[in-house]
Automatic annotation (TrEMBL):
<dbReference type="Pfam" id="PF24924">
    <property type="entry name" value="DUF7745"/>
</dbReference>
<dbReference type="InterPro" id="IPR056647">
    <property type="entry name" value="DUF7745"/>
</dbReference>
<keyword id="KW-0812">Transmembrane</keyword>
<feature type="transmembrane region" description="Helical">
    <location>
        <begin position="141"/>
        <end position="163"/>
    </location>
</feature>
<keyword id="KW-1133">Transmembrane helix</keyword>
<protein>
    <recommendedName>
        <fullName>DUF7745 domain-containing protein</fullName>
    </recommendedName>
</protein>
<feature type="domain" description="DUF7745">
    <location>
        <begin position="18"/>
        <end position="166"/>
    </location>
</feature>
<keyword id="KW-0472">Membrane</keyword>
Amino acid sequence: MECRRNRVGELKGIWQSWDEAKKTRFQDKFGDVAQLLFNKPDDALLKAMVRFWDPTYRCFMFNEVDMVPTIEEYSTLLHYDFRYLLRIYCKQNVDFWGCLANLIGLPVDTVKARLKDKNGPYISWSDIRDAMGKASDDRHLALFAFVVYGLIVFPKAMGYVSVELTNFLF
């Protein structure tokens, strides 16, 4: 089994191109999530963990016990205060297009046309990268946070970000 990290080289390059003031603004707003780009994952540990991962239910299965990190655990690990800590997150049919269109800065119809269905709605890294190139400072930071969470913290498909994260993060 090969352990690959989703676009980590490109994301590191973006982070390293920023000045200290921009990095500080990002960390103040989104916590330490960018530091995950520079942590080397333990391949042996990941290989062991994959054996227990159930992609259908998106959790770890140990015999009869299902385990998944809680919002509080993610919050502690990433040093990030999620918007609605006490909110209950469930899979439902939610219109993510408006929030995503606002984040990317494109009309809703354009965003809908660019979405891919890979067992859920996804947008490509290249579409996000293009939007980052045209984005204002705060939107640029938000897009970078969105893509780090989508490609590194909650990866699902190589080169794609689940649009469900827009409701979770923004």
